[in-house]
Amino acid sequence: MPRYRIHMINSEFQSFDDCDYESVDAALGAQIRAAAAVAAEAVIKGEANAAIEIQVEEGGRVVGRRVLSISVADLMSDDDGQSA
Length: 84
Known about the structure:
The protein is of the alpha+beta class and 84 residues long. The protein has one domain. The protein is 25% helix and 42% strand. It contains 1 helix and 4 strands. The chain has a 4-stranded antiparallel sheet with strand order 2-1-3-4, with helices on one face. A hairpin with a 2-residue loop joins strand 3 and strand 4. It is elongated, with a radius of gyration of 17 Å.
């Protein structure tokens, strides 16, 4: 099984890991799920936006790169329940 180096990076953290996956698509899929969980946690903690770059390397060469972003926006004001 090929070994991939996985990077997850945003303005607050960097994560690097070497993992075995069946393919680049499998590596990207696993990291997209992990990045979604990290971004969702940031939004739950009060961030309006969270973005994470995902990069997959094989043998020192970048073979996949994605950006995942999650945003939340208020549709009602907190003051009177009226639409914003």
